Amino acid sequence: MTSSRARVGTRAAKGLVCLALGAAAWAQGPPGMPPSQVRYTEAQNHPLRRTLTFPGSVEAQTASTLASTVAGLVVEFPAKEGTRVKRGQLLAKLRSTPTELALEAQKASLREAQARWRQAANTLDRIKQLHAEGVASQQQLDDAQSEHNAWVGRSDALKADIARLEDELERMNVRSALAGVVVRERTEVGQWMAIGGPVVDLLAIDEMEVRLDVPERHFPDLRVGASAEVTLESLPGFRLTGRIIAIIPQADPLARTFPVKVQVSNERGKLGAGMLARVSFTAGEVYQATIVPKDAVVAKGERRVLYRINGSSKVEEVPVETGAGAGLWIEVRGGVRPGDKVITRGNERIFPGMDVAAQPLAYQKPGK
Length: 368
Fold this sequence. Notes:
Elements: H1 2-27, E1 36-42, E2 44-67, E3 72-76, E4 84-85, E5 90-94, H2 97-132, H3 138-171, E6 173-175, E7 180-185, E8 192-193, E9 198-215, E10 227-232, E11 235-247, E12 257-265, E13 276-293, E14 298-300, E15 303-309, E16 315-326, E17 329-334, E18 341-345, E19 356-360
């Protein structure tokens, strides 16, 4: 029994040795196969500044509830939720017939007043001439002047009333004061609109803001106008460049954080209010760092690794931590040193111990 167990153990040990030898042989590639073709770039030493990254939330730079400045019955309402509107575009139209009739009546009254004005002016001219000849009395002259002035005043009052009615008529077409997207309807056709009654909620989305809270220890590192990089959790790989437009110098009394606003352009229309974002910007003193092309970094779950070529043209896997970005390059911390040959093309099909035939690949240096 003992000898039988010993034979089984010996066979198992031999099997493990064979597996190890087979794995080593496979790492060198199948027999007769040439080394895998890859491109490499040498790691560099480069001055960088520390990168700070904080979570934030996308907000519309302008959010407004547009209201009516006149009262009336809503007869048209084209501004439905999700509608993108331009500045000056019609949102709602109120019933305008009573105002139009009042306007026509006032215009007719003005025409009558202007006719009376011209008649009074002619009468005044005759009375002035007769008064100069001693035919008309001073009282007659005063009465003619008073009549003329009355019709001048009446005409001016009617002109002002007509201008008011025309303005009211125009304001019965409720128009957008800004370009944006309707996010909520606040009225409907057939509803009576009071003065100041809400029509729609509108978001201006061409320019958006990301609001974040920065811990007080980093408050001295902030400055208005500084560049920031924005990424979105819902859009992997999508990056935006923004700038800090506001630093609120009032800390939250409990969290001891300061609100900061970063402005970003929404030209491609991918941003929506409420999206979760991460904002990164540089701060602090300049330091020397080891950088490699971003193409060299390979994600393995939560880990980040590089593939380095050693002096025997074999692949070595090197775990790293990434830091600040610098154009096409990124800072790495770990077992990589300046001058190391890191694989930047073909690293998706290699593994540690593999033989490779490598050619250099140049990347534009940071800051150039």
